[in-house]
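Our preliminary data section would be incomplete without showing what the modeling component actually yields. Below, a chain of 267 amino acids is followed by its predicted structure, encoded as tokens that our downstream tools consume directly.
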Amino acid sequence: MRCDGQGSEMYRRSKVNFASTRYCRRFFSPLLLLLITVAHAYSQTATFSGRVTDTNTGLGMPDVAVVALGNQTGTRIALTNTNGDYTIEMGTNTNIKVRAYRTNFSFNPVFVGFTSIGGPLTGSHPLNFQGTALPFAILIFAQAPILLTEDSSLHALALDSVFLTRDPFPVVNTNYFGSEKHTRIKLLLVDLDLFNGETVSIISVQGIDNSAIAHDLPVEDLRMVPGTPWLTQLTVRVPEGMTTPNVLTITVTVRGLTSNAATVRLQ
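Predicted structure:
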């Protein structure tokens, strides 16, 4: 992936649209490598573009994560450039929701939904956001977290927390050190923050298997991905007694707000 101006077309096609070239610096983490998968060329495309500005100053806000969630192709993210501008291309979807996120800010509109009846959404859709800095965390503005997916897919962005390998995951990993062998999975999310005094106990993760049986995935850790303050990694344990092979449709709930669903394969 190029880091100069001539590489901008690849950025426009990437899962995370790094609108400013200064973000071409460290993709050593496999978590970030998963986020920059080059997308397939779309035959039917909906493009969302606009500017994110500060309500108080009117100036463009850099480094805001604008997230689009499609009902068929999953999530895509664009980071605003120094002028606050962004562009996101989405593939074939009949429903797309777009929202902006930055820690300790609220945005207007909160989110915008686009729906098409009788065919996929296409064309260009201008969409601007205004951000207001919050002096402290205000739960009334809280939104559901966004569970990130692989490009053009409803398959979750997930890694084994120890070996950083992708799915399918075993229920028990005999290569783990120590006596505890149950597989741990890292999930990637946008807008999953803990406020003062909160712990991971307020987060629940549920997976529905192929037989429509619900399983709780115990939450063990939540932290920011280094260098990407808009991105968090959530570590969960694969539930015991799972029949394999299987597919879990996973959702993450915090403060009563539930994320979009994404799938993880078990073997």
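Helices lie at 8-13, 30-35. Confidence is low (pLDDT under 50) at residues 1-28, 36-40. Preliminary results of this kind motivate Aim 1 of the renewal.
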